[in-house]
Structure formats: structure tokens, C-alpha cells
């Protein structure tokens, strides 16, 4: 899970964009989880939009989590990586999921 922050000045919006390389399996998904533990958005290869135009202040204490979803009754989905969203005020966030990261 590679990520970049780009300063967008003094704006109130902190857009999040998630991209997937073509060779990444569909079982990988990034979730934006708010400070209260609620899943606010899921970014997956087969899910519609992989962009979220978030208000910067709403991201405080939130996180982006890369999950590997199971397709079996016997295995649980599991968390692979976490990106804490502390101190991203006024930044665009771009996350790329690549085979090397997954």
C-alpha cells in the first residue's frame, strides 16, 4: 500500500483516491474508517467510485485499512496495512495498491 500526500493549500477538502494495479486480486479492498470506528467508505476494484471528497476535519483520528477479504467459510478476512490519517489537513491523499504491496 503505497501512498502520497499532496498539499492543496488552505482548502477544507481532503480528497482520497485509491487505485489498484491490474495484477492485484479482487479480494483486496481499502476501507476508510472514521474516528468512531464506522466504515465510511470502501474502495475496491469492483466498487463504483474509488474517490472520496472528504472534509479535512472529518478525517481526524480516522484511518485507511487494506483488507484481504476471504471467500471461504473457514478463513477470516484480515487486515494487511493501516494508514493513520493524523495531520493530513489540507492534503490530497492518493493510495495505490500494487502486487508488491499486497
What does this structure look like?
Helix content is 0%, strand content 50%. By secondary structure, the chain is mainly β. The chain has a single domain (2-97), classed as Immunoglobulin-like (Sandwich). It has a 4-stranded mixed sheet with strand order 1-8-2-5, with no helix packed on it. It has a 4-stranded antiparallel sheet with strand order 4-3-6-7, with no helix packed on it. The termini are close together.
Structural key phrases:
102 residues, mainly beta, globular
Q: Would you spell out the secondary-structure blueprint of this structure?
A:
Layout: E1 2-7, E2 13-20, E3 28-33, E4 39-44, E5 51-55, E6 63-68, E7 78-84, E8 91-97
Parallel strand pairs: 2-8
Antiparallel strand pairs: 1-8, 2-5, 3-4, 3-6, 6-7
How many domains comprise the coordinates?
A: 1
Q: Hey, roughly how much beta strand do the residues contain? A: over 45%
C-alpha Rg (nearest Å): 14 Å
Distance between the termini: 7 Å
Given helix and strand content, the structural type is mainly beta
Low-confidence stretches: none
Shape: globular
CATH architecture heading: Sandwich
Strand order of the largest sheet: 1-8-2-5
Q: How many individual β-strands? A: 8
Oligomer: single chain
The number of helical elements comes to: 0
- SSE order, one letter for each helix or strand: EEEEEEEE
* Average predicted confidence as pLDDT: 82
CATH class: Mainly Beta
Q: What is the CATH topology descriptor?
A: Immunoglobulin-like
> Sheet bearing the most strands, described?
4 strands, mixed
**Helical residues, percent:** under 10%
